[in-house]
Design goal:
The complex is a heterodimer of chains A (777) and B (244). Helix content of chain A is 71%, strand content 4%. Chain A has 31 helices and ten strands. In chain A, strands 1-2 form a two-stranded antiparallel ribbon. Chain B is an alpha/beta fold and 244 residues long. Chain B has a domain of 119 residues: P-loop containing nucleotide triphosphate hydrolases (Rossmann fold), CATH 3.40.50. In chain B, a hairpin with a 2-residue loop joins strand 4 and strand 5. Chain B is globular, with a radius of gyration of 18 Å. The chains are: A mainly alpha (777), B alpha/beta (244). Chains A and B meet through helix 18 and helix 19 of A and helix 2, strand 6 and helix 3 of B.
Chain lengths: 777, 244
């Protein structure tokens, strides 16, 4: 009984804190329509800042609380809304998700920059660790009582706000009908800003409260994910109801503590299970949620994508293979492996092009399906030992099929629901997989076959899998160059396949579903079936990419599959263009190797040039944060960088000499790099500059390709206003036009101009203010 | 017996009764009109018939079969098609692909294949959209876009078509052509149910008209009867002089 009481109280406290975090999430989502994946990161930043001022700078607790909770939190929320979220109107759901995911990643990098993760930090409880109270014999700390009290106050306060105040009622309705709100004299933008301010406040509050009760150690990733657990609570309230959200939060808190109390301590997976519990519960809730209503909502979003023909795709694919072979000549062997890893990421990114770019559905854990494939291949298909070990192709086929099957199982409960839920379900799956399955290094015995195996360990070390390369007949991927070219060919084949698919009737049905699910269904489309098929296909592609990635690395640990890798891959793919196969290529290569390479280069520069250490170290930090900054900016260019580049190149079709010149210049650069005159970095920088500048050069060299003849004539004829009367004749019409634009009464000035003399001046002066006061009207 | 029938359909939104015990029959070969002021429940009734909205009470029958519990796509596969008052076009596709995709859906779901390209050509010709077929559907004016919705619906080879304010946004000329098209389609045996505020069009093409107000049926009859019905004049049409 004593045990029960103690854990019940702990459970209520934890649940209360979950509730505070989750209600902030619900609040922002309902009022601004943006599901804030950075909610946990906001909490994390708040907790770190609180630690900084309270325990590093030793401010008194009340002042520290006022500074962090009262000033920093609300300011952060308000700033995020004004600087970023306001610009997300008329964008697709995936763009909104990417922006907040980017924000989360950016905040994580930022915290690691400011607070070096190697240093341990502990946040103590309010009133110190020895301030305790006894309730019916159970010992509870003052901090925990405060947390519980605050949670109750927040729950009651939000309830009153939403049902008793005009602003609160309006906030509930803001997403459903912003226009109606405007008609009633309320400003939906201001309400959304308010919701971000309140959301950030609640996140920071939860962050400060939760750290001491879950051990006290501040760790950025764990803290961010801990608040993600609150997603599960928000799901109880269907992301709408605050009271239900609090009930869900209490269920979560209690369940976690009862598992701790009553599950056998000797079970090694008990603690893994406890950590994964919120994700498991999130899944269970998804299954029982009623089907979302199909609502007509075909809005023209700002995302666009041009669709290439299969012929263009084949040509581009051949060009890509040729380019990779040429680039290979410039690289040392270790770089070849790096590029191969990048290419494998690009294959995983293709799964997102299909799923999100073509079908409008969301998968936030693409790399996790790669982990499924990798596990299967590791346990089924490796023959030989040591250097001679190879992976068999049929095992890869099995791995890919399993990834597809698991994908189907994961997606099925969420497919009846709106896109965001599928995103959350996949994220829950990804976190569950790394927390639970990939942590499982204990030997098991299969029940009937009595075969011993352990899920995620091989001889080389606990928790890592040695993944030898594939061998098919004469093709042995053990050789780096062969692997790189093969991975590129696989990418190209899948890419061409996707473009052919998008051009087929299946692709049209996907697009129709993405544009208007309601219209699709009333034409006879079984949406669940179509979503399921495309999700499984995409999971299969991700599985294949993941298997190849694991082989390119040679050995993998659970760290290779954590959710943040999936999230940053997804973010960069959107940044480069989720609707394009080339967007997947660039996004995959950049997230697989690009930014890591830049950061590593700066760090090694910092090491070797001691005098510039500070500068290079800062540049390395900036490079680490940059993907997130780019991701946050995706709201401004939601179709992606590739789309913008293709748009800028479109007119160059009619300016062949410019294209030929560009290619010739690039060939020269390559020759210089091959000869060792240019280093690889210079080659890369000049190439990027050339690609970006060519359309600009084209515009200057061949304007006829960019503008219609009439436009061109008009441009030649146009003289800037300050040169009119100088480059052109000073005509009466021009004088009248100038008078009009200056607000001078033309008739008066003409009249006085005729008279001449001083009186005329007076008239003009008198007329001017009159005209000026008329002008604004 | 009507091809499509609702029996005592009632829909409540919270405390509001949006559709109140409405029974309606739609016969093949004619255009059935459904009119009433804004908020009378016309679109909600269409949503119930097509399965986008669950009724609190009542049944929907298609060719004698109770389809009340079927999901929208199964109703469509049984020959029910509709257009939307707030346009629901596939905005990243061309006009032709908007029509073709309806055929693709049909081929993917049923036995017996249709030649999508030839059928799309025929329907684009029939609805007079051939000149804009290759344009992005997002770039054409609302009046033409409404015709694209009809063309897309026809591509599913329906037995019943529900049209939700198809003439709004159309020019007078477009509306006239649209009315002729409807008459022709009905002449070929299609059952058409028309929700429309353009009373001229309704009176021109409909053989029977049902009038809704506050969710309930207040009148039913031929255009001539409806024109002079005091309840209808009071609730919707205004004085008879205003109608002509």
């Amino acid at each position: 009984m004593h045990l029960f009481l103690t854990y019940t109280i702990f459970g209520l406290v934890l649940g209360g804190v979950y509730g505070i975090a989750a209600s902030g999430l619900v609040l922002t989502y309902n009022t601004s329509g943006i599901f804030n994946f950075a909610h946990g990161a906001e909490a994390m930043l708040g907790a770190f800042l609180y630690w900084e001022v309270r325990f590093n700078l030793h401010w008194p607790a009340p002042i520290a609380l006022i500074a962090v909770l009262g000033v920093f939190g609300p300011l952060m929320g308000g700033f995020l809304y004004v600087a970023i979220m306001r610009g997300l109107r008329n964008t697709a759901e995936v763009t909104k998700i990417v922006v907040t995911v980017a924000l989360m990643l950016g905040m994580l990098y930022l915290s690691q920059w400011v607070w070096n993760p190697v240093t341990p930090r502990t946040e103590q409880q309010f009133f110190g660790p020895r301030s305790n109270v006894h309730i019916f014999g159970a010992q509870v700390s003052t901090h925990e009582l405060i947390a519980l009290g605050v949670a109750v106050a927040i729950a009651v306060g939000l309830r009153l706000l939403f049902y008793r105040t005009r602003v609160g009622v309006a906030m509930r309705g803001a997403v459903d009908d912003p226009n109606l709100l405007e008609l009633n004299g309320l400003n939906p933008q201001r309400l959304a800003a308010l919701s971000w301010v309140m959301g950030a406040f609640l996140a920071v509050l939860a962050g400060i409260l939760v750290t001491p009760i879950s051990g006290g150690a501040l760790e950025a990733n764990a803290l961010t994910l801990l608040i993600i657990d609150a997603f599960a609570a928000a799901m109880f309230g269907r992301l709408r109801s605050v009271p239900r959200t609090f009930v869900g939060a209490l269920v979560l808190g209690l369940a976690a503590n009862y598992v701790l109390a009553y599950f056998p301590k000797t079970w090694q997976w008990t603690s893994d299970f406890r950590i994964s519990l919120p994700m498991i519960i999130l899944f269970a809730v998804l299954i029982v949620l009623p089907q979302s209503r199909l609502r007509g909502a075909a809005l023209r979003t700002r995302e666009r994508a041009h669709l290439p023909t299969v012929r263009t795709a084949v040509l581009a694919g051949a060009a890509l293979v040729a380019i990779v072979v040429l680039l290979r000549q410039l690289m040392v062997d270790s770089d070849v492996t790096t590029l191969t890893i990048g290419m494998c990421f690009a294959i995983i990114a293709l799964s997102l092009t299909l799923l999100t770019g073509y079908a409008g559905e969301i998968n936030l854990a693409a790399v996790s399906f790669g982990a499924i494939g990798t596990l299967i291949v590791f346990h089924l298909g490796i023959v030989g030992h040591g250097q001679a070990a190879r992976t068999e192709v049929w095992a890869v086929v099995c791995g890919v099929a399993t990834a597809a099957a698991v994908g189907g199982l994961i997606a099925l409960p969420a497919l009846r629901l709106r896109g965001l839920y599928l995103g959350l379900a996949t994220m829950a799956f990804g976190v569950f997989l790394t927390d639970m399955i990939l942590m499982d290094v204990n030997p098991h015995k299969l029940p009937l076959l009595h075969t011993k195996f352990s899920l995620f360990s091989s001889g080389a070390g606990i928790g890592s899998l040695i993944m030898p390369a594939i061998k098919v007949g004469p093709l042995d991927l053990h050789d780096g160059t062969t692997f790189l070219v093969s991975a590129t060919v696989v990418f190209v084949l899948i890419g061409i396949g996707l473009i052919a698919l998008r051009n087929s009737s299946y692709g049209r049905r996907l697009t129709a579903m993405k544009d208007s699910p309601a219209a699709s269904a009333t034409l006879g489309q079984n949406l669940v079936k179509l979503k399921l098929s495309v999700f499984m296909l995409s999971a299969a592609i991700a599985g294949l990419g993941g298997i190849l990635m694991a082989q390119a690395y040679g050995s993998v640990t659970s760290d290779n599959f954590i959710i943040f890798i999936s999230l940053s891959l997804m973010m960069l793919t959107v940044v480069f263009g989720i609707g394009y196969v080339s967007g997947a290529l660039l996004g995959g290569v950049m997230s697989g190797v690009g930014f890591a390479l830049v950061v590593a280069t700066f760090n090694s520069l910092a090491e070797h040039h001691a005098s510039f250490h500070g500068l290079y170290a800062t540049l390395a930090h900036i490079a680490a944060v940059s993907p997130a900054l780019i991701g946050i900016g995706v709201g401004r260019s939601p179709s992606g960088a590739v789309h913008d580049i293709i748009e800028s190149y479109r007119p160059l079709r009619n300016a062949r000499p410019v294209i030929v010149g560009g290619v010739a210049l690039e060939a020269l650069l390559y020759a210089l790099a091959l000869a060792g005159v240019l280093t690889n970095w210079w080659f890369a920088i000049l190439t990027i500059a050339l690609v970006l500048l060519l359309p600009v050069i084209g515009q200057m060299a061949a304007p006829a390709a960019f503008y219609a003849p009439e436009q061109l004539a008009e441009m030649r004829a146009r003289v800037p206003i300050e040169l009119q009367g100088i480059d052109t004749a000073y005509t009466p019409e021009l004088r009248d036009a100038l008078d009009r634009s200056l607000g001078i009464d033309t008739t008066a000035s003409v009249g006085t101009g005729g008279n001449g003399g001083t009186g005329g001046n007076g008239d003009v002066v008198a007329a001017a203010p009159e005209g000026a006061s008329r002008a604004p009207a | 017996m009507p091809l499509l029938e609702t029996q005592g359909v009632t829909v409540r939104f919270g405390g509001n009764v949006a559709v109140d015990d409405v029974s309606l029959g739609v016969e093949p070969g004619v255009v059935t009109g459904l009119i009433g002021p804004n908020g009378a429940g016309k679109t909600t009734l269409f949503n119930v018939i097509t399965g986008l909205q669950k009724p609190a009470r009542g049944r929907v029958l298609l060719a004698g079969e109770d389809i009340t519990a079927l999901p929208p796509y199964k109703r469509a596969q049984r020959g029910l098609a509709r257009t939307f008052q707030r346009l629901e076009l596939f905005l990243s596709l061309s006009v032709r692909d908007n029509v073709r995709v309806a055929g693709d859906v049909r081929n993917a779901s049923r036995h017996g294949r249709v030649n999508v390209d030839a059928e799309a050509d025929r329907i684009l010709e029939l609805t007079g959209l051939t000149d804009v077929a290759e344009r992005d559907v997002a770039d054409i004016p609302t009046g033409r876009a409404r015709v694209v919705e009809l063309a897309r619906a026809l591509m599913t080879e329906p037995s019943v078509v529900l049209l939700d304010e198809p003439a709004s946004g159309q020019t007078e000329q477009e509306t006239r052509a649209f009315g002729e098209l409807l008459t022709r389609l009905a002449g070929d045996g299609l059952a058409v149910c028309l929700v429309e505020h353009d009373v001229g069009l309704v009176m021109q093409v409909c053989s029977t008209i049902t009038v809704l107000d506050y969710g309930a049926v207040i009148a039913r009859g031929t255009p001539e009867e409806i024109r002079v019905d005091p309840a209808v004049i009071d609730a919707y049409l205004g004085t008879p002089e205003g109608v002509a």
